[in-house]
């Protein structure tokens, strides 16, 4: 769901008022050096100016900002005085406030036990977001998709300039034993997931709906010399049938599955069935994406839009079926 700038700031300000008191803001301001002595322009005033009073701080004149500040807070400042307060310390203060909000939000919204978190050396989230820039930047920042008429920037949570899937492979060099890697579908690659496993690290990933899932055949066939007939070693699962067997909101785990027609990545598979309302919302969003990007999803994949499928190599004793979704959801907080 796309939010307007005013809606985003409203949500931000609500969280700010709920979590951080004026005293907390003042402490943070002193920590980063924004407030060093008694002054009429304190932490509260900067927050008010940047969050509540002006939706376009960067493009609003100093005269207007001073006027808004005085009208709302009673603080009277000259244009030059206010201009000098927009400095590196102010940037550090706002960054610290945002970090504090994000940290507390993650802790408050996730029912993840400390035991589960401590099972991993690090939790590594790889994600990216794209936003448009004014047309004046078109020559320097060509938009995604190669369009020469738009300007855009992609920000990746981990540094990189390549496309998602390529960069997912590049950053494997920094994965260490005990890490938990959470990745968006844009980075999905079975070979990368196998490489993570081979390093003694863990992953949780959504599964692309057109990816084949198999289980070991309990009654494979053999040649007369006792050699296994390879084509009978695995049985492909009918995901549409499995979805129809689940009730709305139900979750099913396949503890030993093999992913990919050729790869056969060994993993746990967790299937969650959406409610009818959630499915319809997902189909509508998909229709918007198809129209925007000029693509058409295959009917078989659309049939499976009523489920979420996760794959993971995390140990069941440490991460139960119910917690796989909660752990994966950590990456959504970055997008939010």
What does this structure look like?
- The protein has 336 residues and is an alpha+beta fold.
- The chain has 2 domains: 104 residues, no CATH class; 187 residues, no CATH class.
- It is built from 14 helices and 10 strands.
- The strands form 2 sheets. The protein has an 8-stranded mixed beta sheet. A two-stranded antiparallel ribbon has the order 2-3.
- A hairpin with a 5-residue loop joins strand 8 and strand 9.
- The radius of gyration is 25 Å and the shape is elongated.
- The protein starts with a helix and ends with a helix.
- The N terminus is likely disordered.
What gross morphology would you assign? elongated
Return the domain count: 2
Strand content: 15-25%
Strand arrangement, major sheet: 1-4-5-10-9-8-6-7
Largest sheet: 8 strands, mixed
Helix content: 40-55%
- The string of secondary-structure elements, in order, is HHHHHHHEEEHEHEEEHEEHHEHH
Please report the number of helical segments.
Answer: 14
Provide the gyration radius in Å. 25 Å
What would the average pLDDT be, to the nearest integer? 81
The termini sit apart by 10 Å
- Report the count of strand segments: 10
Q: Classify the secondary structure makeup into a structural class.
A: alpha+beta
Low-confidence stretches: 1-5
């Amino acid at each position: 769901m796309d939010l307007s700038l005013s809606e985003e700031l409203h949500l931000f300000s609500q969280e700010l008022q709920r979590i951080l008191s004026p005293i907390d803001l003042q402490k943070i301001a002193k920590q980063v050096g924004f407030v060093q002595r008694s002054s009429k322009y304190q932490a509260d005033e900067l927050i008010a100016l940047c969050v509540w009073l002006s939706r376009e701080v960067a493009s609003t004149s100093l005269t207007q900002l001073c006027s808004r500040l005085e009208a709302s807070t009673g603080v009277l400042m000259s244009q030059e005085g206010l201009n000098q307060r927009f400095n590196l310390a102010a940037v550090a203060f706002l960054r610290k406030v945002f970090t504090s909000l994000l940290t507390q939000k993650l802790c408050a919204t996730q029912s993840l036990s400390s035991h589960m978190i401590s099972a991993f050396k690090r939790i590594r989230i790889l994600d990216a977001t794209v936003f448009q820039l004014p047309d004046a930047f078109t020559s320097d920042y060509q938009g995604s998709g190669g369009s020469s008429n738009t300007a855009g920037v992609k920000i990746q949570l981990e540094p990189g300039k390549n496309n998602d899937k390529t960069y997912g492979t590049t950053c494997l060099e920094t994965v260490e034993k005990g890490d938990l890697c959470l990745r968006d579908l844009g980075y999905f690659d079975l070979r990368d997931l196998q490489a993570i496993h081979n390093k003694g690290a863990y992953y949780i990933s959504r599964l692309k709906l057109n990816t084949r899932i198999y289980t070991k055949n309990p009654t494979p066939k053999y040649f007369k010399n006792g050699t296994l007939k390879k084509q009978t070693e695995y049985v492909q699962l009918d995901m549409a049938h499995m979805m129809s067997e689940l009730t709305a909101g139900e979750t099913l785990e396949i503890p030993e599955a093999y992913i990919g027609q050729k790869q056969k990545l060994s993993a746990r598979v967790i299937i969650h069935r959406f409610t009818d309302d959630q499915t319809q919302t997902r189909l509508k969003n998909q229709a918007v994406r198809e129209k925007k990007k000029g693509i058409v999803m295959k009917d078989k994949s659309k049939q499976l839009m009523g489920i979420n499928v996760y794959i993971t190599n995390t140990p069941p004793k440490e991460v139960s079926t119910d917690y796989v979704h909660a752990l994966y959801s950590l990456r959504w907080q970055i997008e939010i």
